[in-house]
Amino acid sequence: MTALPTPLAVQRLQFPAQPDWTWLRWHWQRLPGLHEAMRLREIATREKDQLACLATPYRYSEGGPVLGADCAGAWMQDLAAAEIMSISPAFLAGWSGLKAAHVAPSVRVSGCVVVPPAVGWQEAPDVWQAVCLALVAVKPVYLLEGCA
Predict the structure, then answer these.
(1) How does pLDDT run across 105-141, given as a tens digit for each residue?
(2) Cβ neighbours of residue 23 closer than 8 Å, sequence gap 6 or more
(3) How far apart are alpha carbons 11 and 114 in whole angstroms?
(4) What pTM did the predictor assign?
(5) Cβ contacts of 29 within 8 Å, gap of 6 or more
(6) DSSP-assigned letters across all residues of 43-56
């Protein structure tokens, strides 16, 4: 008996363990959950009165988690200036002295995920995890301009 091919809708939810943005774009590019090249003002309009999960890398090859937390803090300020209230796993982990950022709770309480073009975002497992969790939970993911 020949096995039936896996439907695209099922394949779409079988995220690779490691970040694979080409795979993600191929499976999600025309669906309403993934938004690319967004500006902060556009997100503020779409997600008015929603809490956003700011997905930035926690660990860098240089600078370690302190730099990751500082970078997240700077992006949180940019989001706040655009009137987007955010929570950042990298910021919380850095200032709590944790070895890893805990992404799932932040995604769970947020209405969307915002990914800025921070250094190392493409390879960061915590950014990838936030994006995957949001898409599975049918929450919009916004890749800011510069995330190409």
Answers:
(1) 999 999 999 999 998 899 999 999 999 999 999 999 9
(2) 16
(3) 24
(4) 0.89
(5) none
(6) HHHHTTT-EEEE--
